[in-house]
Specification:
Radius of gyration: 16 Å
CATH topology: Bit1
Number of domains: 1
Shape: globular
CATH superfamily: Bit1
Helix content: 25-40%
CATH class: Alpha Beta
Structural class: alpha+beta
Pfam families: DUF2000
Order of helices and strands: EHEEEHEHEHE
Protein name: DUF2000 family protein
InterPro entries: DUF2000, Pep_tRNA_hydro_II_dom_sf
Number of helices: 4
Length: 136
């Protein structure tokens, strides 16, 4: 099935496996919070056990170097997308308040990005991520 929109995460390629997973989980939670219409209905198994709902469309995960992250960040903002960011500093914080303070302490051009997430029209997201490869 082809969707008109795309949910995408771009990760810095040199992250450890646990960091990639952690950053992806945090970033897509922001997409879900910002765009609740992307969430489907709850699941249930044949025994009636209830499970959480999930996104109604795939989340595409890409990898790139620091320069590609910076470039995609700029492209996304130029095109009016609201994005999520995860910076290196967030690996050293332990709660949401400290996370926000760490991001707020750095000007946009100085952010040391390790991941960004976005949702938008497929063609726009594709242009933002031009040059990034699907995560292996």
């Amino acid at each position: 099935m082809r969707f008109d929109t795309k949910i995408a995460v771009l990760l810095r390629e040199d992250l450890a496996t646990w960091q990639r997973l952690n950053v992806t989980a945090f970033l897509v939670s922001g997409v879900a919070a910002q765009e609740p219409e992307l969430i489907g209905k709850p699941y249930a198994d044949a025994d009636g056990t209830a499970y959480l709902p999930m996104f109604r469309q795939p989340v595409m995960v890409f990898a790139g170097d620091a320069a590609q992250l910076t470039q995609a960040h700029g492209r996304a903002l130029e095109r009016g997308l609201t994005i999520g960011v995860f910076t290196e500093e967030l690996f050293k914080t332990g709660n949401d308040d400290d996370n926000r303070a760490a991001v707020a302490a750095v000007p946009r051009d100085g952010l040391r990005l390790v991941g960004i997430a976005m949702h938008g029209p497929r063609s726009v997201v594709d242009k933002v991520l031009k040059g990034a490869a699907l995560h292996p």
